[in-house]
Design brief:
The protein is an alpha/beta fold and about 260 residues long. The protein has helices at about 60-70, 105-110, 115, 125-135, 150-160, 180-195, 210-215, 245-255; strands at about 20-30, 30-45, 50-55, 75-80, 85, 90-95, 170, 200-205, 215-220, 230-235.
């Protein structure tokens, strides 16, 4: 396992600055407009880890798709290092809830997909081995997806993202389908990878504890159409401890913003 106790090294910050400026978005459902995002604005600094929390279906994943360049916003601007986001780029990589590995390809060949698609695999083969080693799967390069556990498959998905050396890693509930013990382990993996690589991270999660444990900032969204209700800084250095009273207080505050504090 990759240790999670590393402190972030400012000299390794390689992430991009992201700017979301007054973004609104809607879908057409049977000819009727469905508003999903309502004038959302924020800025993520280079190397920052930002978590997005909010009710299910409020528009968080839609926002990630816009930042990834998979869809254009209805209104507003999205910028990476000052340049308008007009489509997908290798500098921005998405890791989804499902690993979506090709079952007929080995771990190595799944991880190599991005480099292969860009036509640079032959000269950059070493990056595939490095990415597999980085996520702790060096002994499984020749394995097939059906031979992996859920956590291992998600590590392959992370390696496939990291092999492209992204400036922005977009995480759309990547741990949502894992059991609780594997999820805790993978949280440590993601934290360590971020600390070692220095990318800017955006994480959509429904787990408040996960958000305050991993992120520098937590953006709390309203019901659809999503607006930012709160932008909360997590003033704790790494490594963090789940029993920290400060983190517990933040969790209660965020649950209150989500209308769930009565069960605390």
């Amino acid at each position: 396992m990759v240790a999670a106790a590393l402190k972030q090294d400012a000299s390794k910050v390689a992430g991009a600055i992201l700017e979301v400026k007054d973004v609104s978005h809607q879908f057409d459902i049977d000819g009727e407009p469905l508003a999903v995002l309502d004038h959302v604005s924020f800025r993520a600094e280079a190397g920052e880890f930002v978590a997005l929390l909010g009710p299910s279906g409020c528009g968080k994943s839609t926002l990630l798709r816009l930042i990834a360049g998979l869809d254009p916003p209805s209104i507003g601007e999205l910028r990476e290092n000052g340049q308008e986001i007009r489509g997908p780029e290798p500098s921005r990589v998405v890791v989804f809830q499902d690993p979506t590995l090709y079952p007929w390809r080995t771990v190595w060949k799944n991880v190599a997909l991005g480099l292969e698609a860009r036509g640079i695999l032959r000269q950059e083969r070493g990056r595939v081995d490095e990415a597999i080693d980085l996520v702790g799967l060096s002994g499984f390069a020749g394995a097939y997806p059906h031979q992996l556990s859920g956590g291992m498959a998600q590590r392959v998905s992370l390696a496939r993202a990291l092999v492209n050396e992204p400036e922005v890693l977009i995480l759309d509930e990547p741990l949502g389908k894992l059991d609780s013990l594997t999820r805790i382990s993978m949280q440590a993996e993601i934290l360590s990878l971020w600390q070692r690589s220095g990318f800017t991270a955006l994480l959509v999660t429904h787990d408040v504890e996960e958000a305050v444990f991993l992120a520098n900032r937590v953006l709390v969204f309203s019901e659809r159409p999503a607006r930012i209700k709160a932008d909360i800084r997590v003033e704790r250095p790494y490594p963090r401890h789940r029993g920290d009273h400060y983190l517990a207080g933040l969790r209660k505050e965020i649950l209150g913003l989500l209308g769930l504090d009565a069960t605390w």
